[in-house]
Design a protein that fits this description.
two-stranded antiparallel ribbon; 5-stranded antiparallel beta sheet; 186 residues; 28% helix; 17% strand; alpha+beta; HIT family, subunit A
Length: 186
C-alpha cells in the first residue's frame, strides 16, 4: 500500500501551478472504486470473496478469529483502523436466512470483536450493523456480513468530512496480528 503526501500537485506535461494544498495519495482505493474482486453474481460460486476467504491462511485472508459457523475478518476498505466484519461461512444473503446456531455465534463473535478491539486499541465506542441488500448499501449483498467499526472520541476530523478521505495509521496485516493476539478465548 502506497500512501504519499505532497504539498504540490503532480504536474502532468508541465501544466499546473502549485496551490498549497496537501494531497494524500491512496491508490489502493481505486480497486474498490472500480469494483475489482466484486462478485459477478449472487451465487456462491460467482466470485464471492466471503466464500473464498476461509480457504486462505489467517494472514493472507486477514482473518482475525474463526468460529464453528462464522469468522471475523478485517475489512479491506476500512472506515477506521480495526474495522472488521463478522461473516457466516455459509453463503446466505439475509439475516432471516441464518439458522439459530449461526445467529447465536454471529452475536458471540461480535461481542468478542468488541472486547478485542477495546483491549488492542482502546476503542471508546462502536458502530455495529449490517446493510441488507444493495438498496440498503450492501457492497456485497449476496453474502451477509456484520460490520464492527471501532470509534474514538474526535476520530472524525476534516479529512473525511471535507476531503472525503480516511487516514489509517496502520497496515492491515499489522492490525490483523494485533487483534488476533488480543482476541479473547472462547
Amino acid at each position: 500500500m502506497l500512501i504519499r503526501m505532497t504539498s504540490e500537485p503532480e504536474l502532468q506535461d508541465g501544466v499546473g501551478e502549485p496551490d498549497g494544498f496537501q494531497r494524500l495519495w491512496t491508490p489502493h482505493r481505486m480497486a474498490y472504486i472500480k469494483g475489482e474482486n466484486k462478485p459477478t453474481g449472487p451465487g456462491q460460486d460467482e466470485g464471492c470473496p466471503f466464500c473464498g476467504i476461509p480457504a486462505l491462511s489467517d494472514e493472507d485472508g486477514l482473518v482475525v478469529a474463526r468460529g464453528e459457523r462464522v469468522y471475523a475478518v478485517l475489512n479491506l476498505y476500512p472506515y477506521n483502523g480495526g474495522h472488521l466484519m463478522v461473516v457466516p461461512y455459509r453463503h446466505v444473503a439475509d439475516y432471516t436466512g441464518l439458522d439459530d446456531a449461526e445467529t447465536a455465534e454471529l452475536g458471540a463473535l461480535t461481542k468478542q470483536a468488541m472486547t478485542a478491539l477495546r483491549a488492542a486499541s482502546g476503542a471508546h465506542g462502536f458502530n455495529i450493523g449490517m446493510n441488507q441488500g444493495a438498496a440498503a448499501g450492501a457492497g456485497i449483498a449476496a453474502h451477509l456480513h456484520q460490520h464492527v467499526v471501532p470509534r474514538w472520541g474526535g476520530d472524525t476530523n476534516f479529512m473525511p468530512i471535507v476531503g472525503h478521505t480516511r487516514v489509517l495509521p496502520q497496515l492491515l496485516a499489522d492490525t490483523r496480528k494485533m487483534l488476533a493476539e488480543a482476541w479473547p478465548a472462547a
